[in-house]
Amino acid sequence: DGKYHPVKVIERRKLQSTEPSDYEYYVHYTECKISVLPRKILEIDVSFFYNNDIEMIVNRRLDEWVKLEQLDLDSVETVVDEKVEDKVASLKMTRHQKRKIDETHVEVGHEELDAASLREHEEFTKVKNIATIELGRYEIETWYFSPFPPEYNDSLKLFFCEFCLNFMKRKEQLQRHMRKCDLKHPPGDEIYRSGTLSMFEVDGKKNKVYGQNLCYLAKLFLDHKTLYYDVDLFLFYVLCECDDRGCHMVGYFSKEKHSEESYNLACILTLPPYQRKGYGKFLIAFSYELSKKEGKVGTPERPLSDLGLLSYRGYWTRVLLDILKKHKGNISIKELSDMTAIKAEDILTTLQSLELIQYRKGQHVICADPKVLDRHLKAAGRGGLEVDVSKLIWTPYKEQS
Ligand code: ACO
Ligand code: ZN
């Protein structure tokens, strides 16, 4: 935006030039308030987040290589590395997430992601490796590091087959691949079709390579989420826009086959060219429709990213307030949860953040003044694409013996 913003220099690399002292610098924008970050995520109202959610937003999406002349050298400070430990205290993770982040030693037993592994994660992932990818008709700038096998790490760009998600270092390899790849849609069962939109359910155990490829791809846009999946344990729900050339992936979410923590979604991604069109809310709505069919309540795996939280908050607000608006008489959190498959805690925090829970005559009540509800609904953004439940043909996962 033409202004200077504080950065931390994380890495430097030599430029191939005649000047021996020519370097490029990899910088991290240190301003925590995402509302002030200029380019890619505008208009985010930070008051919307809880305090500990803000802690989670270690936003590294804007990290990039810059030239010396882009830096204001008069304002340079040398800083001693801040203590990661403090941050970690609030960054509780489940064993499961810890296991996924810690790909090298699969050690479970610590409830929290300890300072050492967080530092290790940040150290290991501090510089983006792959800068762009080609996928179908799009060339996409990546956001974060992803742990591709070492032989891919010297390439700045990777070429993905949009159907089987195999990736290659050179365009010619992809062209050769496309001539013999016979997939035209994700492997697995088509469980939803409405107009040009289709959803495919892919079992990570039956389609291991596809599942792994999808994780490598997704990690380029997810930061503190996953480094590596034990894909056997997951189902992948891949949303596609279909035409006569095939089914083109727009996004996906993954779901554990069995979750002790009642997670109904592990990771969610809308590919950047398709973002902000309502697909994120569609995927979220879809995950709750699956929970309803299972007769369970669900919640997304934590931590949520900034964009993940915004999308969830928008979804929860809309679904809950739509019910409150129509409902006559009393309604409890439990009833709301039964109707929506949204976990009670998420209902409570959503209503609390909207200041709709009041303490009256010794008990907590939901305030449902229609004018207030309408104001919040307006602020919650667009509804997103609707899931037409009559088009969903699905039975919950059962282990095959
Ligand atoms: N700036 C401001 N608000 C945004 C932005 C943005 N760039 N992107 C999304 N939002 C908010 C808006 O409130 C939007 O609603 P609105 O358009 O009605 O105002 C709402 O989020 C959702 O918009 P959708 O179009 O339905 O969602 P989208 O298809 O863009 O997908 C998603 C949202 C999946 C979070 C996407 O941003 C993404 O893939 N991000 C990268 C990966 C990620 O962070 N995933 C979540 C991690 S947490 C987890 O996996 C459990
Ligand atoms: Zn292919």
From TrEMBL:
Gene Ontology terms for molecular function: chromatin binding; histone acetyltransferase activity; transcription coregulator activity; zinc ion binding
Class in the EC hierarchy, top level: transferase
Organism: Gossypium armourianum
GO cellular component labels: chromatin; nucleus
Positions of the catalytic residues: E301
PROSITE patterns listed in its UniProt record: MYST_HAT
EC number: 2.3.1.48
GO process terms (BP): regulation of transcription by RNA polymerase II
Catalysed reaction, written as an equation: L-lysyl-[protein] + acetyl-CoA = N(6)-acetyl-L-lysyl-[protein] + CoA + H(+)
Localization (cell): Nucleus
Domain MYST-type HAT: 125-396
Pfam families to which the protein is assigned, alphabetical: MOZ_SAS, Tudor-knot, zf-MYST
Name of this protein: Histone acetyltransferase
Key words, A-Z: Acetylation, Chromatin regulator, Metal-binding, Nucleus, Transferase, Zinc, Zinc-finger
Top-level lineage group: Eukaryota
Coiled coil: none
Taxonomy of the source species: Eukaryota, Viridiplantae, Streptophyta, Embryophyta, Tracheophyta
Similarity comment: family membership: Belongs to the MYST (SAS/MOZ) family.
